Amino acid sequence: MASSKGVRSRGLTWGALSTVAIGLLTTAVATPALAADKPAKPTIVLEHGAFADASSWNAVIKELRADGYPVVAAANPLRGPAHDAAALRSVLDHVAGPKILVGHSYGGSVISVAGANDPQVKALVYVAAFLPAPGETALELTNKYPGSTLPATLDPTPFALPDGTAGTDLYIKPGKFHHQFAADVPAGTAALMAATQRPIAQSALEETTEAAAWKDKPTWAVITTQDLNIPAEVQRYMAKRAHAHSVEVRASHSVAVSQPKTVAGVIEKAARTTR
User: Fold this and answer.
1) d(CA 43, CA 48)
2) How many domains does the chain have?
3) pTM to 2 decimals?
4) Domain-embedded: residue 187
5) Cα dist. 237→1, 141, 228, 230 in Å?
6) Residue 220 · residue 123 · CB < 8 Å
7) In the prediction, which pLDDT does 54 show?
8) Is 229 part of a structural domain of the chain?
9) Sequence-distant (≥ 6) Cβ neighbours of residue 101 within 8 angstroms
10) Under DSSP, is residue 201 helix (H, G, I), strand (E, B) or coil?
11) Residue 48 lies in a domain
């Protein structure tokens, strides 16, 4: 039988070993309890709109990540609400846990469909965006009140795919992009945005939506009062109808680029309120 002296020669006494064991056990028990007291933050899923791409969210993503939120910026095909919502749902299916859906511009039509009947989507945030009711189109809503100067800036471009699909893509003319889409963004940044803009199929703006997730989910809206794409009165009408928590911002349609802190703040408020 080993003596206590032999144990000491290895650098520990039985008493010290007991203290270490108790400490490890206490840590093992306490750590899960702490984790349970601090639930994980929901993932913020961002959907861009027409004439933009996922990089339009870059500055907002920086703000959200600095505050500890996981973020995914999805690529929007811009082919039509049903098609694009299916693409977004495939992204949502790969994101575990609760989510906050955020849509800019036409992206609002997409999240309205994709977020319906998904219990993991806890809230919706519409940023200078459409909040269509079932059966409505983006074009119909744009024209509900005067003020949009978008039609005169568009450059229609026919396309044809190998499978026989044909249609018309819409771009904003580069020389008109800054004033129309991003008047409060530095000219150099707006020029880059114009060069990298993603076209939307004209038919996407004429396609009716099939669902409205805002009917039964907490909803926020960032209303841009200097918007030349979706007039502020149109945004107010949709937000009021959806009983959205609205924040009005003196900004262009590209508010996520010009005022990312404001946009991120609204998103985080939605995330905190629904936890």
Assistant:
1) 16
2) 1
3) 0.86
4) no
5) 86, 10, 16, 11
6) yes
7) 98
8) yes
9) 45, 47, 111, 114, 115, 121, 123, 124, 125, 213
10) strand
11) yes
Instruction: Tell me whether residue 138 is in a domain.
Output: yes
What confidence score (pLDDT) does residue 15 get? 43
Range of the domain at 100: 43-147+206-273
Strand intervals (E) in the chain = 43-47, 71-74, 99-104, 121-127, 154-160, 166-172, 200-201, 219-224, 245-249
Q: Hey, is 223 helix, strand or coil? A: strand
The 10s digit of each residue's pLDDT in 242-275 is 999 999 999 999 999 999 999 999 999 999 998 7
Q: What is the pLDDT of residues 107-144, one digit of tens each?
A: 999 999 999 999 999 999 999 999 999 999 999 999 99
- 6 to 12, 19, 54, 150: CA distances (angstroms): 10, 19, 67, 87
Residue the block writes with tokens 């027409």: 50
Residues of the chain short of pLDDT 70, as ranges, are 1-39
CA distance 227 to 250: 9
CATH of the domain at 263: 3.40.50.1820
